[in-house]
Design goal:
Oligomer: single chain
Number of strands: 16
Strand content: 5-15%
Length: 507
């Protein structure tokens, strides 16, 4: 391995500057603080790093004790993908719920309140919002993370979300460029491929990104997807045609280009994280996100050395690495300036129904996002503790399996004694036996993608016509049950809104 000069070595500092690594623990390890002192300019936070707002604020202060301009990033979409409330579930509904309401001022207010919470904890770069147009209902990884299937709707809500975050000094990172919505493969597991023509890409995938760029999004995250009409050989993250030719030159984006996680199999399985990182910077990316899975010092050193060696062998132009590092520092300066002057002076936008932005805006949004369909017979609100049967699909990597979801906890708050069970098959008899005389609330996620869930619901409704069905994923299947409640997401507040509807107290 090449011996590197530390401290004043500009090349080594630039290589560290373009990395956005993660780490394990709720305090910063010594190795991370040491690398910040040597030039590391960004740190990514995940659920494993956060237990409370107070602890998070102390952690970000610890990181900035080494250098005040460190970018602290997080993957906080709200809704199903939350890191701030990974153990409780989010206080904010996700994009699909906001898109279903289609009130841009509500979306802006939700993003502003989320941004305030991040800023108060010292987080200043959010890897959000998702600007993907979810045109494929079978998509296993985007789904409710998208505002919806209509490009114009996604565009206007992406703009509102960017405005909300950046109005309080938190840089938005619009993702996953040039659009991950029309895929049926999760890029955490393999390389998705989109085979549509350029006209379709421009009329669909690129519409929200054009709008976000016009709105001034500070960062854009690339997708590990192959778009054959743009580059038939390399995924977008590694493609000069896509990152430099399309995003920089054609769309005119001048901000920070961040990669999606380099350890994801769509890149790592073919190129490896070291070569993948070199190719990404060469293609036009400015920051390498790594740390969702690989989160140790060795990973940082391997990527640093790979970039340095690529410059020294001529594979990566030194000026390209220097330009990438400069863009990281420019964004760090913007966020540092916002912290210095305080972003709370920015006036809030009004929200319909007379609700001003505030701590309860997430619940307001979740209630408005409910779609309630009654069956053929009159529905009698529940007044005694029910049995909640949760039909649980395998969680995708972005959402994770440590964040609770459903309605049982919220129903128990309203109807103490509520019992619950989790099921991974279509066995109706087990549910009926567990429920006994209790009324049944069946909770599902994306029932249209899981035939076994549909079979279970049909069986339950046939046996117990008063069954209530709560769909917390994409609302694509026909309504079933005495009451069918579509929450448009599985955030904690969505569960609360659904529970209120079950007992007949929804606001």
């Amino acid at each position: 391995m090449t011996t590197l000069v530390h401290g004043a070595d500009t090349l080594t500092r630039d290589a560290l500057t373009v990395l956005q690594p993660g780490f394990v623990g709720t305090t910063a390890p010594d190795w991370l603080l040491r690398r910040i002192g040597e030039g590391l300019s960004s740190v990514g936070l995940f659920g494993r790093n956060i237990v409370s707002p107070e602890q998070l604020a102390a952690l970000t202060a610890q990181l900035r004790s080494e250098r005040d301009d460190v970018l602290v990033a997080i993957d906080e979409e709200g809704g199903d993908v939350t890191r701030l409330e990974v153990k409780q579930g989010s206080s904010f509904p996700g994009n699909y719920a906001l898109g279903s309401v289609d009130d841009v001022e509500l979306t802006r207010a939700v993003a502003r309140e989320l941004g305030r919470r991040l800023a108060r904890c010292g987080v200043d770069l959010n890897w959000a919002p998702s600007a993907d147009v979810n045109s494929n209902a079978e998509n296993p990884v985007i789904g409710v993370r998208s505002f919806g299937p209509d490009p114009d709707l996604v565009a206007r809500h992406t703009v509102a979300y960017v405005d909300g975050l950046q109005g309080v000094g938190v840089a938005a990172c619009t993702k996953h460029f040039p659009g991950h919505g029309d895929t049926n493969v999760d890029s955490h597991d393999a390389l998705p491929r989109i085979d549509v023509d350029l006209a379709t890409l421009h009329a669909r995938e690129l519409v929200p990104f054009r709008a976000a760029i016009a709105a001034g999004t500070k960062a854009v995250m690339s997708a590990h997807i192959l778009l054959s009409a743009l580059d038939p050989h390399r995924p977008a993250t590694l493609s000069p045609q896509i990152l430099t030719g399309l995003l920089r030159q054609e769309l005119g984006f001048e901000g920070l280009i961040v990669t999606d996680g380099m350890e994801m199999q769509a890149v790592a399985a073919t190129y490896g994280i070291e070569r993948g990182s070199v190719l990404a910077i060469a293609a036009g990316a400015d920051a390498i996100c790594v740390g969702g899975g690989l989160c140790d010092e060795d990973t940082v050193l391997q990527l640093r050395d790979a970039l340095v060696n690529a410059v020294r062998t001529g594979e990566l132009p030194e000026e390209r690495l220097a330009d990438a590092a400069a863009r990281v520092r420019a964004l760090a300066s913007w966020t540092q300036a916002h912290r210095a002057r305080g972003a709370e002076s920015v006036p809030g936008a009004a929200v319909q129904e007379g609700t001003a932005p505030g701590a309860d805006i997430g619940l307001v949004a979740a209630r408005r996002a409910l779609n309630v369909t009654r069956g053929d017979r009159p529905y009698t609100p529940m007044s005694s503790a029910p049995y909640v049967a949760s039909f649980t699909p395998v969680a995708n990597f972005a959402v994770g399996d440590e964040t609770p979801w459903g309605v049982a906890a919220e129903l128990d708050r309203l109807l103490p004694g509520t019992e619950t069970g989790s099921y991974a098959d279509s066995s109706v008899d087990a549910v009926l036996a567990a429920a006994g005389e209790r009324r049944i609330v069946a909770v599902v996620r994306d029932v249209h993608r899981h035939p076994w869930m549909g079979e279970a619901l049909d069986g339950l409704v046939a046996a117990r016509p008063d069954t209530v069905v709560v769909e917390m994923g994409l609302n694509e299947a026909e309504p079933r049950g005495a009451l069918h409640i579509a929450t448009h997401g599985a955030a904690r507040v969505c569960g609360r809104a659904a529970a209120e509807a079950v007992v007949g107290t929804c606001a």
